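Can anyone check this?
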Amino acid sequence: MTTFFSIPRKWTDRISNTWLNVATFFLLLLPLAIGLGLVLESLPLLRTHSFFRLIGSSDWSPLEGKFGFFPFIIGSLLVTLLSFILSAPVCVLAAIYLTQYAPRRLMQTMYFIIDVLAGIPSVVYGVWGVLVVVPLIGEHIAPAFGLTSTGYCLLSGGVVLAIMSVPYMLNMLMEVLRNIPIELKEASLSLGATYWETIKKVLLRQGKTGIIAALNLGISKALGETIAVLMVVGNVVQVPHNVFQPAYPLPALIANNYGDMMSIPMYGSALMLSALLLFIIIILFNILTNSLVYQRNK
């Protein structure tokens, strides 16, 4: 029914399409705007220092104008790799069990627990790490290997990050395995394959693209995490030689020193460059993951 204030249908469609296009265009430009802003803020330091010298040097003394990011880059990569090694196998196996073997009630309960874990603030994970993980590693696990550690170390950061990554990875892995057509499983079983052979050779292969995307989500989450990591990782500028030594990831560097950047020349630009490095690492990792997905789908 047409009223006096009604808008003609063709104008409604045009307005809707315009807003949809604007929203999509804004999202497409968002990563570019973030990267461009970080580059512009980093330029003062890049004009006076070589980029490759900055990322390859371990000398860090802002008061003397020395900004070597190598220990921070290594710290970020190692703590992320550690969290991935600890969380990925657990998430894949748990997703297989929950979607293929567990009763439906247990799977629904697990979805509730995932929502709870995903909603806990980072600082709560950090406090839990300080109260539980750090003493456990410093007083029991490190001595068991004949080493001494305060507990504020790479392993503590990896454990806390692994737990924080679980809800994101597990939720996506469960959705991937649940959405694989049941006809594929039934066909495999009808041909005489065992249940485990069907999971390994049909379900996991069919869902490989989604599994890669889920693991990528967990790693991206771990790479950018800040508060929980800086509370347990030790924050010592060095390249750790074992998992019981402290480290200093890039997010912790930014969070710990952002208030001091106004009083030291080039310090603000150095912190922006550290954010840019983190941004580049995440982009490179996503490009690698998407390449794997593309090769799989080709």
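Reply from J.R.: I decoded it. Residues 9-48 form the longest helix (40 residues).
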